[in-house]
Amino acid sequence: METRFLDPGALNHRLILQSSLEEPDGCGGLTTTWQAVGSVWGAIEPINPTSGVVAQQQHETAHANIIIRFRSDVKNGWRFVLGARVFDITNAHDPDERRRYLVCHVEEEGR
């Protein structure tokens, strides 16, 4: 396995890490609210944008990796927020299993 070197100075975006909280809406459904877990410094590495048609409308999704210092509590389904931008976490892993960094695969819609 390739060991990845990352300059800590590359973590140059201040991101808000949020977890989802689902609560009953009183009508038999659930309402999702977002709760801040903390703020972290991260590096954003774009991967590839995809586009398609959903419900007869153009739909674009950007894929990226967000690299942060290692945290054991980050889960799929959480998200990062940077200003008006929202990055949904689809997968998070420790690339070299040394608990230094966490690579989060994310999707950003409408970008």
Quick take:
By secondary structure, this protein is mainly β. 0% of the residues lie in helices and 65% in strands.
Question: What does this molecule look like?
Answer:
With 111 residues, the protein is mostly beta strands. The chain has a single domain (11-109), classed as Thrombin, subunit H. Helix content is 0%, strand content 65%. It has no helices and six strands. A six-stranded antiparallel β-barrel has the order 1-2-3-6-5-4. β2 (30-54) and β3 (57-69) form a beta hairpin. It is globular. The mean pLDDT is 87.
- Taking strands numbered 1, 2, ... along the chain, how are they ordered across the largest sheet? 1-2-3-6-5-4
Shape: globular
- CATH fold-level assignment: Thrombin, subunit H
Q: Let me know the CATH homologous superfamily.
A: Bacteriophage SPP1 head-tail adaptor protein
Strand percentage, roughly? over 45%
By DSSP (H or I, 4+ residues per run), the number of helices equals 0
Radius of gyration: 16 Å
User: What separation lies between the terminal Cα atoms?
Assistant: 32 Å
The CATH architecture can be given as Beta Barrel
Largest sheet: 6 strands, antiparallel, barrel
